[in-house]
């Protein structure tokens, strides 16, 4: 049990160090798209867009996914 606790503490310390380093790094601003309008507000619908698959052979339209229920998978151990 002690090696698992030590490993957990080490991973937590690494995560904190990475978070602090990321917070200190200057933020790059994303280039503005010509067609980009104002940022979306809370509960506002996302704009229409199409995503290509990784193999480039198929496309997925956002409108197809609007009526589906989201699924969230959470993995963890609570021992």
What does this structure look like?
With 79 residues, the protein is mainly α. It is built from two helices and two strands; from the N terminus they run αββα. It has helices at 2-24, 62-65; strands at residues 50-52, 59-61. The chain has a two-stranded antiparallel sheet. A hairpin with a 6-residue loop joins β1 and β2 (59-61). The chain is extended and about 50 Å long. It starts with a helix and ends in a 14-residue tail after the last helix.
Order of helices and strands: HEEH
Instruction: Work out the strand percent.
Output: 5-15%
Question: By helix and strand content, what is the structural category?
Answer: mainly alpha
Distance between the termini: 11 Å
Radius of gyration: 20 Å
Q: What is the mean predicted local confidence, pLDDT?
A: 76
- Report the uncertain regions: none
Instruction: Characterize the main sheet.
Output: 2 strands, antiparallel
Shape: extended
What level of helicity do the residues show?
25-40%
Largest sheet, order of strands side by side? 1-2
Number of helical segments with 4 or more residues:
2
| Structure summary, number of beta strands | 2
């Amino acid at each position: 049990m002690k090696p698992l606790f030590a490993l957990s503490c080490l991973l937590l310390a690494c995560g904190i160090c990475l978070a602090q380093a990321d917070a200190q790094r200057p933020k790059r601003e994303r280039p503005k798209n010509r067609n980009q309008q104002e940022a979306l507000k809370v509960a506002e619908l996302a704009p229409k867009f199409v995503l290509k698959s990784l193999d480039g052979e198929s496309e997925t339209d956002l409108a197809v996914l609007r009526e589906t229920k989201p699924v969230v998978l959470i993995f963890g151990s609570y021992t």
